[in-house]
Amino acid sequence: GWVAALAAAVLPQWRQSSYAGDAIITAVGLHEGLWMSCAAQSTGQVQCRLHDSLLSLDVHIQTSRALMVISLLLGFFGIIVSVVGMKCTKVGEEDPITKSRIAVAGGVLFVLSGLCTLAAVSLYATQVTHEFFRESTVPINARYEFGSALFIGWGAASLTMLGGSLLCCSCPAKEQRGQHYYRQSQPSTAREYV
Fold first, then answer.
1. Which one, of 167, 41, 6, 40, lies nearest residue 100 by Cα?
2. DSSP conformational letter for 30
3. Domain count for the chain
4. Residue 177: is its pLDDT beyond 50?
5. pTM score, two decimals?
């Protein structure tokens, strides 16, 4: 899920040219993402240009950028915390309850990362939908529709939240949190049984 969120964040296909309408224009396909806009020629040549100024961008692009960066940071720290909390690692293995709590903390970070990804992708998709159906003089084949990065982002958010939820299920039960019972050794007797 985190790798898919990283791929969605860097891909320039957050929105693409619409091919709906009567006159289909196939000579140039336009793609826009969070960081750059690209024009793909029918000959296969692709030209991309980074967005010039951060302050001149629309609010939904700035917000989606911020949410995706926060999502990637939360996911990165979630990976580190979850690895520490796994039962197969040696860090903190003397206290299994603490290890379980560390794994739960990693799961919470993953859930928060997935929610940030979901919010960023959904906000951008709402803006694309609003601009597509808005009454304007722009012909329908010159408008934008959903790009492939939005679908990758929705999948990434689902996988990240699912993984985080599974990690949150590793919380120890209440009976295990309380007292620890140790088996006492039996006093030795003169007769041993074989």
1. 167
2. E
3. 1
4. no
5. 0.77
